[in-house]
Amino acid sequence: MTILNKAEKTLGRPQYHIRLKPGDVGEYVLLPGDPMRSDIVAKYLDNAELIAHNREHRTFTGYYKGVKISVTSTGMGCPSAAIATEELANIGAKVFIRIGSSAALQPEMKIGDLLISTGAMKNEGTSRFYVPDCFPAIPDIEFTSLLINTANEMKDELGYGLHYGISATDDAFYGETEEWIKKLINLGVSNVEMEASAIFTIAHLRKLKAACICGVSGNLNTGEVIYETENTKLAQAWESEIRVVLETIYRYEQTKNK
């Protein structure tokens, strides 16, 4: 019996799900969930080109201050985010930054604020295929530290509140009970989202870098949520987090060249 080695079969070749090949993306890739948010990132890039759009994965590649950068949407949840991360790594991506929306859990956090993850609870099934439950999901410390510093420097200019702490990565948006949310709040968890822990885990195992920054869409602690009308403060947070990430990438690239 011959068992297929997926890692060996797909490395350095055209990728099945994201429909990209080596050379299509830069070393830095922003990872929104919503495919249409890839278009928001693209407007901040010079010479941005739509490279592929297959399933939930919409990819542009362009340049920011001379640095080649890509954006690939992951869709919702860890399974599709893990596939995107694996396939992007197969074709040369080295730094993955999740950008998106997140529900805050602590009372001081407001809609439109930015949240940077310093770690993630693995309340999802995908990471269990990679590591034991007790294994932590941690972003790259060096890149995340620079992300925090850059976000602090830019917050007055862009007008957002900034927070950082441990996130919870959950699988079921509608399965989170009041008891579960209270437990996370009491543990001091900052926010709930749906992709970071798998991205952190895969990047660690592949000796690559990952980080996560999200805009606050609502607060499950205070009940401040917007589900039926346009969330204008969240839309502005998306713009702000993209600007922060792009500037962080540029600064990080400068440190590499010293």
TrEMBL record:
SUPFAM superfamilies: Purine and uridine phosphorylases (SSF53167). One of its GO terms (molecular function) is uridine phosphorylase activity. The keyword Glycosyltransferase applies. It is an enzyme of class 2 (transferase). Its EC number is 2.4.2.3. Belongs to the PNP/UDP phosphorylase family. This is Uridine phosphorylase. The lineage of its organism: Bacteria, Bacillati, Bacillota, Clostridia, Eubacteriales.
